[in-house]
Write a structure and sequence with these properties.
By secondary structure, the chain is α+β, with helices and mostly antiparallel strands. The chain has four domains: 143 residues, no CATH class; 169 residues, ATPase, nucleotide binding domain (Nucleotidyltransferase, domain 5, 2-Layer Sandwich); 88 residues, no CATH class; 103 residues, no CATH class. 30% of the residues lie in helices and 26% in strands. The chain is built from 16 helices and 32 strands. The strands form nine sheets. Strands 13, 14, 15, 20, 23, 24, 31 and 32 form an eight-stranded mixed sheet that branches. Strands 3-2-1-4-11-12 form a six-stranded mixed sheet, sandwiched between helices. A four-stranded parallel sheet has the order 6-5-9-10, with helices on both faces. Strand 9, helix 5 and strand 10 form a beta-alpha-beta unit. Helix 4 crosses helix 5, helix 9 crosses helix 14 and helix 10 packs across helix 12. The protein is globular and about 75 Å long.
Length: 646
């Protein structure tokens, strides 16, 4: 905890995370934390955000004008992509390549399900347009006259799009034609969002670049509308304009996020990943398996060597996004996940959720279907007298009625059905953690398990036992840890550029990033921290079609080769010392480390800081279930460390 000072001089930090069921807020005031949890407002998430902020300010006894920084993570772009709710989008590509997204790659969506297909392109054939131009990696082959660009813009305007995506061949190397088309489109379609691929991605591989640009165009008007409402409400409440969490785990300013929604598709889960890295550093736990279980879903990520595992591209809702992202795997297993009987008579849980409204049956808001939360209440792992955060009172009779109705269809008693619901939900989360570890050659027994989210600590020990993990960490602020991660997150700007360097062309000068290349100091307080620039390199042997990303090396060709060959040998079992290298893409990250924040401090008076199972521990915004065979201690950061003794 930072030293105490005059509260009037403290810089107040605010983080707000929107989940499917609850919206969490954390205020950091001179090293002290004030938290709030309120129901999410699906019809307009900004309403719930301001409700959470008001509750946190009231808890702290502070006026809104004391807030110096406001960081926000949300699910607007994620939900829109998953639900197919997007703007009416047109797509412009080089003549002969307008169907690149529909053609995709020859890899099937599912190896054994021949009827399964990938999502259809957002822009149908009637809204795809050909640009009469051609650029190669070596330069312009067929010029695009200004008159032709203007005529094409008029054709696009005739279909009345709400957004336009432009992806021309090799614009990562020469964006001149894309810029010309962008200017023509903005003149012909004032107020319509235009996404240019070299602004969004900047790397080669046309299919992934085109698909990412199309998603960016389709989601940006929706996200911009939400952020405009949020900014207006924040301003009216006396709050600063929010910075927005990107999928990469770093913050960006509101105008950048509004202009490029594709950067925020994993905005919500990325806040939890930022918090996991923070806790890893403070608790001296460099290797963590992290699972964030909220009301709707469970997000899983891995911290190795103190850094959250990242990826340069991934698929979301079946659509490729060629952007840097925290490597997160999500399953539909949350406290509000609905339990049901499938046609074969098996007990299933999720992915359908009771959401915020009506919520689980035990919330007393009209829900009647059994959920994981109802099952935990039936099993005595939640205290009905204590209730839940956000003012939710628990109704055990409603929970038993909901679980009992399902139990009758399965020929089980109520307790057995509740235990089965919890076991099935645990199995889903174990599967997600195995996807991130065992399926990638990582032994989960070498890691500690970090559990957070409102429901995570209820399931952590059982999941750890299934994976052979002996240590479980439950932060003091685990119920709102993602919001705390937002308040402490770095500000980042990522830039990727395809260079296609080979042999002697790989020099220190072209490898150098715009900065000193040193790693940011995660523990240095924000105001004193200097911006840092780091670089990573996508490298392959000549003749290969895919690259390995090399990180943590100076811009030196010999060091790059040594690191690449070590990584290649680790991944594939061999290296080629005489093979010619190709540096395909240089990825630069410019980061300003976030401010120092505490993790929550010592336990409150009367709390059990050395529990032994079986025990139910009430914590702020969450409940911890300690099974038999587990015991715990509380460290200096307020983190509960549970250990298993068979």
């Amino acid at each position: 905890m930072v030293p105490q000072g005059d509260p009037a001089d403290a810089r107040v930090l605010l983080g707000v995370d929107v989940g499917g069921t609850f919206t969490d807020a954390v205020l950091v005031v001179d090293g002290l934390l004030h938290t709030a949890k309120v129901p999410t407002t699906p019809e307009d998430q900004s309403l719930g955000v301001l409700d959470a902020v008001e509750a946190a300010l009231n808890a702290a006894g502070l006026p809104s004008d004391r807030v110096g920084a406001f960081a926000h993570g949300m699910t607007v772009a994620t939900n829109a992509l998953l639900e197919g709710d997007h703007a009416r989008t047109a797509f412009v590509a080089t003549e002969g390549f307008v169907d690149v997204i529909e053609l995709g790659r020859q890899a099937r969506a599912s190896l054994y399900r021949l009827c399964r297909t990938r999502p259809a392109p957002i822009a149908p054939p009637s809204r795809r347009f050909a640009a009469p131009e051609r650029v190669t990696p070596a330069g312009v082959r067929r010029p695009l006259p200004a008159a032709a660009a203007a005529a094409l813009a008029e054709e696009v305007a005739a279909v009345a799009p709400e957004a336009v995506a432009v992806c021309l061949l090799h614009s990562y190397a020469d964006p001149t034609h894309e810029r010309l088309l962008g200017a023509a489109l903005r003149e012909a379609l004032p107020g319509v969002h235009v996404s240019l691929s070299h602004d969004v991605v900047g790397t080669f591989r046309e299919y992934e670049r085109a698909a990412t640009t199309e998603v960016d165009a389709a989601l940006s008007p929706l996200l911009a509308d939400y952020l405009d409402r949020l900014a207006a409400r924040a301003d009216a409440a006396g709050l600063p304009a929010p910075d927005i969490m990107q999928s990469s785990g770093g913050l960006t300013d509101l105008p950048t996020a509004a202009a490029h929604a594709a950067l925020t598709v994993l905005s919500g889960p990325a806040g939890g990943a930022a918090a996991a890295a923070l806790l890893s550093a403070r608790c001296d736990e460099p290797d963590l398996l992290c699972f964030d279980m909220g009301g709707t879903s469970c997000d899983v990520c891995v911290v190795e060597g103190g850094a959250v595992r990242e990826t340069a591209a991934r698929e979301v809702a079946g659509r490729p996004l060629a952007l840097p992202m925290v490597d997160i795997h999500t399953v539909g297993a949350g406290g509000g996940s609905i339990a049901w009987r499938d046609p074969g008579g098996a007990l299933r849980v999720g992915p359908r959720s009771a959401g915020a409204r009506p919520g689980p049956a035990c919330y007393g808001r009209g829900g009647t279907e059994p959920t994981v939360t109802d099952a935990n209440l039936v099993l005595g792992r939640l205290d009905p007298a204590a209730g839940l955060a956000g003012g939710v009172r628990l109704d055990p009779n409603a929970a038993r009625a909901a679980v009992g109705a399902l139990a009758a269809t399965l020929d089980l008693d109520v307790e057995a059905c509740a235990a089965g619901i919890v076991r099935v939900a645990d199995a889903e989360m174990v599967r997600a953690l195995r996807v991130m570890t065992v399926e990638r050659g990582v032994d989960p027994r070498d890691f500690a398990l970090l559990a957070f989210g409102g429901a995570g600590p209820l399931h952590a020990c059982a999941i750890a036992e299934e994976l052979g993990i002996r240590r479980v960490l439950v932060p003091r602020t685990s119920g709102v840890l993602s919001a705390l991660g937002l308040a402490a997150a770095d500000h980042r700007r990522d830039r990727a550029r395809t260079v296609l360097l080979r042999g002697d062309a790989i020099t220190a000068e072209v490898l150098a990033a715009d900065g000193d290349g040193g790693p940011p100091d995660a523990d240095e307080p924000g105001p004193a921290a200097a911006p840092r620039t780091t670089a990573a390199y996508d490298v392959r042997y000549r003749g290969q079609s895919h690259e390995l990303t090399v990180t943590g090396v100076p811009p030196d060709p010999a060091a790059l080769r040594a690191a690449f060959e070590a990584l290649h040998a680790e991944r594939y079992g061999y290296a080629e010392p005489e093979g010619e290298l190709e540096v395909v893409t240089i990825r630069e990250r410019h980061a300003v480390p976030g401010p120092y924040v505490t993790l929550g401090g010592a336990p409150a008076a009367g709390e059990d800081d050395t529990p032994a199972g079986p025990a139910v521990l009430a914590r702020p915004e969450t409940t911890v279930w300690v099974p038999a065979g587990w015991h715990g201690t509380t460290d200096a950061t307020g983190t509960l460390v549970l250990e298993h003794q068979p």
